[in-house]
Every structure is written in C-alpha cells, then in structure tokens.
From TrEMBL:
It comes from Subsaximicrobium wynnwilliamsii. Residues 93-172 form the Ysc84 actin-binding domain. It comes from the Bacteria. Keywords: Signal. This is Lipid-binding SYLF domain-containing protein.
C-alpha cells in the first residue's frame, strides 16, 4: 500500500512539473506573440483595420522554415478573439518544388467571420495552395483582402529562402 501511495505521489509530481513546463512555454509564446503584433504594426500601421474588424486572429511569432526541393515549416502561436487570448495553436507546413534556404518569420492569420474562425478552432482548417501571405511593408495591408475567409500576413525576421513551391499548411488548436 505504501508503494502504491509513493507511485501515485510521484505520478502527480511528474504531471505537475509537466503542466508547469507547458505553462511556461505558453507564457513565452504569448509574450512573443504580443511582441510580434507590436513589430508587425510598426512595419505596417494599416494592419490595425484587420485587428479591429476581424472575427479573430492567430499570431505565430516564430515560424521556422527551410528546404531544398522538399521544405517544411513549423511554429506555435496564440489564437485571439476580441483581443483576448483564447488558446494555443500549432502550424505545420510541407511543400515540394523549387526552394532552397532557411528563414524565420512571424505570421498572422485573420479570420473574416465566425465561420472561418470556428473552422480553425474545430481543427477543420488548412490552407490550400491558393492562399498566400502578404509580406508586410508599409501600406501593403491597406490593399490586402480576405480570400476564402482569411487574410495572411508575414514578416521575415532572419534568413533567406527562395521558393516556388506547392504545399499546404495544417493547424491544430487547444483552448485554455
């Protein structure tokens, strides 16, 4: 009986440490997302219209991508509704085509309406080859439009990647 209690206590301890580590990661990602939002707004203030008028948005502050013929990208982010964080998201991308290099970017996806936002939250959301990101430069967001319920903006942070490829992004979401 004493052994069982010890095993249970150790199990609870490991679960607690795992939850604390996950919580620390989430806090870091949330802080990075807020910094990315500030940086992207500084790069193009007209992005404010999207923040103010979308049903919600997800910020992936640190997306790493790289490839040589076959490419991949991944990142963690935060989903917001009405400016309030609602949960954590993950991005994964695979692509094939003419591509070489590596790059770090920040990416924001705006959802035009509740249907697009709910599709993301339900896990039914993925990008087809026809959706592409607008690379932020001053004034670019002014002319950007939603396509299939989303508008995507990216801000390169480091690295260089030449890319003419076809692929898709897949997402997952966990609410708080």
């Amino acid at each position: 009986m004493k052994t069982l209690k010890t095993i249970l206590a150790l199990g609870i301890l490991f679960i607690s440490f795992g939850a604390m580590a996950q919580n620390d990661d989430d806090k870091r990602i949330m802080a990075d997302a807020e910094n990315a939002k500030t940086t992207m707004m500084a790069a193009d203030a007209s992005l404010g219209d999207f923040f103010n008028n979308s049903a919600g948005y997800v910020i992936f502050p640190n997306v790493g991508k790289g490839g040589f013929i076959i490419g991949a990208a991944a990142g963690n982010g935060v989903l917001y509704e009405n400016g309030t964080a609602q949960g954590m998201a993950k991005l994964k991308k695979l692509s094939v085509g003419l591509q070489a290099g590596g790059q770090a970017i920040s990416e924001i996806i705006f959802f035009e309406n509740e249907a697009a936002l709910n599709s993301f939250k339900d896990g039914d959301f993925e990008f087809a080859a026809g959706i592409s990101a607008v690379v932020l430069k001053t004034g670019k967001a002014e002319t950007a439009q939603y396509k299939e319920g989303v508008a995507v903006f990216a801000l390169p942070k480091a690295g260089l990647m030449a890319e003419a490829s076809v692929g898709g992004q897949k997402f997952s979401y966990d609410s708080f």
